[in-house]
Amino acid sequence: MDFLVDVITSGTVRGADAYCTPEEVTAILGSDFLVDRSRRALTHGYPMVEFSWTRRTPRDPWTGWTFSVVPAEKPLLTDVRSAVAERGFSLRHLPDGSW
After folding, report:
1. Distances (CA, A) of 58 to 20, 30, 38, 66, 97
2. What is the residue-wise DSSP string for 11-40?
3. H or E stretch at 67
4. Domain extents for the chain?
5. Greatest Cα-to-Cα distance within the chain, rounded to the nearest angstrom
6. Whole-number Å distance between alpha carbons of 96 and 98
7. Contact 55, 22 (CB under 8 A)
8. Global confidence as pTM
9. How many helices (H) and strands (E) does the chain have?
10. How far is Cα 53 from Cα 66, in angstroms, rounded to an integer?
């Protein structure tokens, strides 16, 4: 759960965030990932983490779009909230029902 709490409290995965280029993410997380690529979308899939980029045309550079984390085991929300609070942060419930 420490990994998940690190991502929540830092907004990054070991320093990589949604604004990093594919090359920057590879430099930080390594080259052992699955690739899903089309002309306008690129995803690097690591264990528990996916980074995605988009571009308007094949000539344009990739632009960071999002990253997502899927823990190997889904922790209890109360445990996550408690661990996040121990680091001086809090989770808040958003109007769309997400946290």
Report:
1. 18, 24, 9, 19, 36
2. SSBTTB-TTS-HHHHHHHH-S--EEEE-SS
3. strand 63-69
4. 2-86
5. 46
6. 6
7. no
8. 0.85
9. 3, 4
10. 7
- Distance between CA 67 and CA 19 in Å, rounded? 9
Length of the chain: 99
Cα 32 to its chain centre, rounded Å, is 16
Exposure on the CB side of residue 67, measured as CA atoms within 13 A: 27
Q: List per-residue pLDDT tens for the chain, 99 residues long.
A: 899 999 999 999 999 999 999 999 999 999 999 999 999 999 999 999 999 999 999 999 999 999 999 888 888 989 999 999 999 999 888 888 777
Amino acid (1-letter code) at residue 37: R
Containing 10, the helix (H) or strand (E) segment is: helix 2-10
Token pair 């320093």: residue: 15
Q: Are strands 63-69 and 41-46 parallel, antiparallel or unpaired?
A: unpaired
